[in-house]
Amino acid sequence: MTTDSMAFMDDDLLSRARPRQGGIKRVSASQQIHDALRERIVMLEFKPGQALSRAELARDYGVSQTPVRDAMLKLEEEGLLLIFPQSKTEVSKIDLVHARETQFLRLSIELEVARKLAMGRKEDIAPARKILIRQEMALEEDNLDVFARLDMLFHHALCEAAGVANLWQLVTSRSGHIDRLRNLNLPDPGKPANIIHYHRAILDAIEDGDPAAAERAIREHLTGTLSQVREITARYPEFF
């Protein structure tokens, strides 16, 4: 990433950066490790089916095995890890049923978010507009890791603007499977530009006070990846 683009990265985004040894400094160690491991799983650094060593992760993060164990147990509850006692721990395969259920939940929430914002104060979406500008820069630099993080921040910003940030956290806690599916789809030709198109359409409709157009843009945007499931699973059969 260039120095110029880094100037546009806020603390919220930087906190999602890949973890480094000894970098667990805020809140509890187990929560920080949970967030870091979840990030690496969702971003496909840790592949579906890959085995993880609690001892090795504890050394990497400079902590005891206890917070790593606690983080892993939480990730197991979220369906992202499979823990076999006294045997092994591995990253779960992508569950398409779970992905579709989460998509249904997210679509239900974001359709109402779009409608509420389109009928509300237009200045409330200023943070989302700034994130879109950063996302356009990430696309120009072909930085898909940053692009993907900004994608999530964009939708988070809309939920915050609508006053339902806690519901976004609910969606996030269930989104590991659908997010991995999206990240497999993201490198496809035209996909990032398509995301930018819909993000811009969502904001434009909100600013125009057109709830029907905002809802339509949300629906078309959020159904894109699931429409490509057959192609994605054919390319990455080992992940499912």
Question: Notable features of this structure?
Answer:
single chain, 240 residues, mainly alpha, 3-stranded antiparallel β-sheet, 3 strands, 65% helix, 4% strand, globular, disordered N terminus
Describe the protein's architecture and organization.
- With 240 residues, the chain is mainly alpha-helical.
- It is 65% helix and 4% strand.
- The chain contains 13 helices and 3 strands, in the order αααβααββαααααααα.
- It has helices at 3-6, 11-14, 29-42, 54-61, 65-77, 96-118, 126-140, 144-161, 165-174, 176-185, 191-207, 211-222, 229-235, and strands spanning 51-52, 81-84, 88-91.
- The two termini are 32 Å apart.
Largest sheet: 3 strands, antiparallel
* Number of separate helices: 13
How far is the N terminus from the C terminus? 32 Å
Strand order of the largest sheet: 1-3-2
**Helix content class:** 55-70%
Average pLDDT figure: 89
Count of strand segments: 3
H/E element sequence: HHHEHHEEHHHHHHHH
Task: Report the principal-axis shape.
Answer: globular
Report the sheet-strand fraction: under 5%
Radius of gyration: 18 Å
Structural class: mainly alpha
* Uncertain residue segments: 1-25
Short description:
This protein is mostly helical. It is built from 13 helices and 3 strands; from the N terminus they run αααβααββαααααααα.
